[in-house]
Amino acid sequence: MGMRGGGFSQVLATVAIAASLGACDLEPCGPLDLVGTQTRGFDRQGPTVIAVSDGAQVEVVRTCARADCGFAELEIQSLPLRAPPDQIMLTASGRWLTYRVGSGAYRIDLDATQSQSPGGLGTQSANDVGVPGNIDELVGSLRGGDWLIYRTYGAGGTHDAEPRSELWAVYVGELAEGEAAQQFRLGAGHDLRVVAMGHRHIVARERLDEGREDLYLVRVAPARRVDILAGSAVGDPLHLTSGDSFRRVMITEGPSPAEIDDSTEPHAEVPTDVQVIATTGEGASARTLIFAVADLDHVANFSGEVVTSLNPLEDVPGLSPVSPDGKHLAYVTTRGDLALRNLDDQRSCMVRPASATRHVLAGFAADGTIYLQAEESGHEAVYAYQADTQVFTPLTGSDQQWRLQAVPPRRYELDDDEHPPLPWAIVRGDDELAARGPGTGPKNLSYEQASFLPRGDETLWLLEANNDGSHLDLRRIQPIASGNVLGFDTTDADPTVCRGADCKSPKPYSHEYSSPLTTVCVSVSQSAIDTTPWATQCSEPTKPKRYLDSGPPAGELGP
Known about the structure:
Number of strands: 38
Number of helices: 2
Structural class: mainly beta
Helix content: under 10%
Shape: globular
Distance between the termini: 25 Å
Largest sheet: 5 strands, antiparallel
């Protein structure tokens, strides 16, 4: 099981306790402050960056941070690329744009290109630099900086019946003059597929026979005085456990070395990784396991599953399994109850039992609001829950299948002190995509397919490919209150950009491309989001909107 010291006896005791206590024996949670000292504070969120390419050029759109922005919310740069890319990837910091052409990759310092043109407008020289290595697929970025994880294939290539591949890490951030980029293989001798990325480590699985999998922790940029993994080196696979298919895996974060008075540590400002949380199996057979990153101690094993999306290894945009204070885990018991796990003392409590309701998924927004989806009377409905006041707010009815699609970082703040902030969410019904808030009907968004990006305030950005395939739009979904009823604006609240020196007529951002057959690539910096920053896939003629997907790249799903 990959345990150290008294880990095995601890797990046996934990399993025995879990077996003796049914879900119905959980005590009610009571009022909880789930914000406290935030590990996911809004003040740490960097500027949102989106990169769009449909050829040998890329447009970089970012939140305007200049004092002279005025009414323009966004600034845009057009940068030339060496060739049309097969993938583009923004690192988690939002500073570095990388792109892959065949088996070669290049990096561009967006801070440097922005400084060349303080207005951030027009076309600038990219000054791209080659990234070393044979890079056949970009997997993603560590969540806290500028490390890229990538995959390289053997001579047979990706279309072999059994492609031979290796997993690698390379640092593409700022280097001292004459310094070579750090680069090394991950999990030599193992066929590893990445399931989660932290700030300094990754977790990967290796498939065994009969649907079983091994789960490994791999160090990439460990904090030397925190991550006490005796005898191991960066890149070594450290066995955590074996189990059925791992459907949800995440790495929680802790204070950076600089915050714990160790500014001499490399990348001292990057948060540390604290725990690996992994759910194996699903439904009645699901179990969730928790490991300490620092020493591999197996600290918990209990029945139930972490479900923040109906798709394995994904999160609903804006939704995290862990509360903003880093102390509570939202999960669904094997009976379908909604429960919270205290990650400090490993005790669980009941938020909402499954009587006429069976909970399907749940997680936290950045302000501590719990959003959940539940089956009721043959239909599915979406709710918001405030743990401090223990108030459930229905966001949909039970008239049809309503599924949660995205949540904003914060509830909508009203102008008066009489009413608490109002939650809202993006939901998909049987035949519509809509914004929903309390006390109001759905605001139909009229989009066939879209992806969503939390902004860091009470709004969401919507990235949408129009139906005729001629352009890609970026719009803001802005709630508007009338008393304690929410409406939504997707027109006047559109983010605007200035294209030109005088900027007299700012317009909503829209990227036009030549034809529906154009290959389109989109990447979003995850600096303001807690989900894994996977490398997105470019579109294809047979999959013209694939770049809107947010899950793992094809190589991580296995050969």
